Amino acid sequence: MITSLSIENFALIEKLDIDFSKGFSIITGETGAGKSILLGALGLVLGKRADLTSLKNKDEKCIVEANFSIGKYDLESFFEANDLDYEQETIIRREILPSGKSRAFVNDSPVNLQQLQDLSFYLIDVHSQHQTLELSEEEYQFKIIDAIANNQELLIEFQSDLKKYRSAKSTLESKKNEFSSILKEKDYNEFLFQELESANLKTGELEELEQQYQALNNVEFIKENLDKLLAVANEEEFGILKNLKEFKAALQKNINFSAEYQSLFERTNSILIEFDDIVKELNRESDLLFNDPEKLETINQKLQLIYNLQKKHNVLTVEELIQIQTDLETKVVSVATLEEEITKLENSIKDIELQLDAIASTISQSRREAVPNLSEKLIEILNQLGMPNVRFKIDVIPSASYHNNGKDTLQFLFSANKGTDFGLLKKVASGGEMSRIMLAVKSILSQYSKLPTIIFDEIDTGVSGEIANKMGEIMRDMSKTMQVFAITHLPQIAAKGANHYKVFKTVLGENTVSELKLLNSDERIIEIAEMLSGKDISDSAVNHAKALLN
């Protein structure tokens, strides 16, 4: 339950600190006094989005802090799962900075808005007129039936399997599309792969083949040049080798006269040795040279094959062709692999479907068993609320499709009067009837949930007199097991509360501010009398107020 609320710099509220008690509490005030502001501030700590328009003073930050007593509600696992410190007296704080940024804390640990919203689900149900409209939606109607049928654990299990099922179906569809695409190109891919494989390509092969081709194709020219070089080197009278040897011999005669001559002699000797080695290498190359038309043709054919493959695949290197070959091999092999994967996925999906169908069947059965109980309880409460001839026709209808909450659709029909046909709630129920039905639903749900707190924001819309009195009694009964707040304009309901808070505006200088105070016994009599007769309170209104309170 919420034990206190502190608000600073929010809308018309400068600073407000208020404590709350368990049981049934009433909040009243004139239209525009600030009841919606109070709910807006509470909404911030429950994870709703905020903006700078929420700040009363744009230069200061807004702080909303709420204390919750949660020791009885088994929330330790939630705190552990979200890495938060669990405290039986938990504090939630929300700050809006002048820059527009927002921060949230649970027991001083920073949290994001999603975590705050998830936690608020276990703390407070704020009922608004908008939620009354949800009563006619199938999703909300299922929530009512599933709460009574105690289907929560089954639904969690179903949704977990449904997530696996949808993921597997998505993967299967993707694999089938991939398989279909590959299958269309299978024969062509196999042809391309075999063509590349038979080419027996090797990294660096193209450059080597081109070099060999040039050498073989120009063998006569190369031979002629080698012969000239060898002749120049070895000619008996003027050959380079002969002259170098004579040069070396002449220089050798001077080596004893200075170190410089010795150095020049050694360098000359090195040149002679190197040149002699070059000549020997040229001789070997010359001996190896011969005209080989067959090898030349073989190399030419391999080169043409590579050039054609490069042109065909629009690449420039052999390495790129090898990569294409590898990719094609993967595609060719993946046909068989994909077939295996698809078969496994299909079998897995069938297994998940069997699990989903079994859980959905159990959920559906428990829903059908819960329907008479729900109808009976609704009729019982609504009879007290001035609807003696109300009837419900609730049918749980199995379907072939998987929904987020099972395999059922729901027909939730309503008739308020004798002799009238059943119809959809949103079409045949008036605003006052919808309010009473929603209160009946909340009253029933309170018996099946551990929700600490519920806030009814003008659920009495469209009702008055004795019906309002009965609605107040129902809310008071609910407060025996949970904390209940009712924001109301009706004195009959206001008189049923154990505590009564008043929202009001005051003018301080040039500022208008909203405030909230807990009324004492005398103030409460005056407030209810004013709700009965307006600002000019008569003695009869005061007596009537006392009678209602008693």
TrEMBL record:
Pfam assignment, any one: SMC_N
> Coiled coil: which residue ranges?
328-362
InterPro entries in UniProt:
DNA_recomb/repair_RecN, P-loop_NTPase, RecF/RecN/SMC_N
Cellular component terms, GO, for this chain's entry? bacterial nucleoid
What does the UniProt keyword field contain? ATP-binding, Coiled coil, DNA damage, DNA repair, Nucleotide-binding
Q: Which GO terms describe its molecular function?
A: ATP binding
Q: Where is the RecF/RecN/SMC N-terminal domain?
A: 1-506
Does the record carry DNA repair as a key word?
yes
Which GO biological-process labels does this protein carry?
Answer: DNA recombination; DNA repair; SOS response
Hey, which family's this protein in?
Belongs to the RecN family.
Q: Which NCBIfam families match?
A: recN
What role does it play?
May be involved in recombinational repair of damaged DNA.
What is the protein name for this chain?
DNA repair protein RecN
**Organism, per UniProt?**
Flavobacterium sangjuense
